[in-house]
């Protein structure tokens, strides 16, 4: 390649030659390079003079390659195609998206993840997320995903697991509801509306604690709707901290009673061992954990 610089007057002359040969005219090549037609003609003439060859025959119908011109054009066009392909591959590698699949609850994604989605995209600009959502309690196999949230795994788990958040439950409501109806206490005289999460496999009635009779209730099978109804001022809901920590930190929800239920269990981020554990997955795991820890620091005074 070092000798090529001595064989041609400039690299630009090869670019102009290739364009003129491909287009069949100096005028078309000039438009491609945004220069004048005489400029293209001079560049080709300089290349021919430098090589001591006639590359084009000029006629009324435009340019036609000579045999020497055809030989050079084949080599130049093949070389430029390889260079173009290499450059395209380099650019694609730098801008390629990582697709990461997550298995989370609908409530967690709606009320915790989506509010900070802009920050996630800022920190992970090359990641495309795919969510597999669970509308009820987090249970069941992880499936073919990169990262999932479940309760703590068993001793013989077939997945990697990292503790994410303790299971802490407290009654929550909107500030306006608390102002208008007061807290949910055993001695409260005013009836409340309880927003219930109807899970056929689990009874959460013991999480409410003792409270006055006569309360109305509305039950939903999707916990994301339970939290949204509480934020809209429709009543009091049980707030799982791993879902409502953002809303508590932003003041969209407030504790509705002094009761706190620490189950002793914890939610974990998990990754199936059968799937390669990529660096991007670990980076997202760390980001989620840091964000949750920041939430806990903001609302620590509400949990005492």
Structure commentary:
This protein is of the alpha/beta class and 304 residues long. The protein has two domains: 4-95, Arc Repressor Mutant, subunit A (Orthogonal Bundle), CATH 1.10.10.10; 98-303, D-Maltodextrin-Binding Protein, domain 2 (3-Layer(aba) Sandwich). It has helices spanning 4-7, 11-23, 26-33, 37-51, 67-95, 106-113, 117-123, 175-181, 223-231, 241-250, 279-303, and strands spanning 56-59, 62-65, 98-105, 127-134, 147-151, 159-173, 193-197, 216-220, 236-240, 254-255, 261-272. The termini are far apart. α2 crosses α5 (67-95) and α6 runs parallel beside α10. It is built from eleven helices and eleven strands. The radius of gyration is 34 Å and the shape is elongated. The strands form two sheets. Strands 3, 4, 5, 6, 7, 8, 9, 10 and 11 form a nine-stranded mixed β-sheet that branches. Strands 1-2 form a two-stranded antiparallel ribbon. A hairpin with a 2-residue loop joins β1 (56-59) and β2 (62-65).
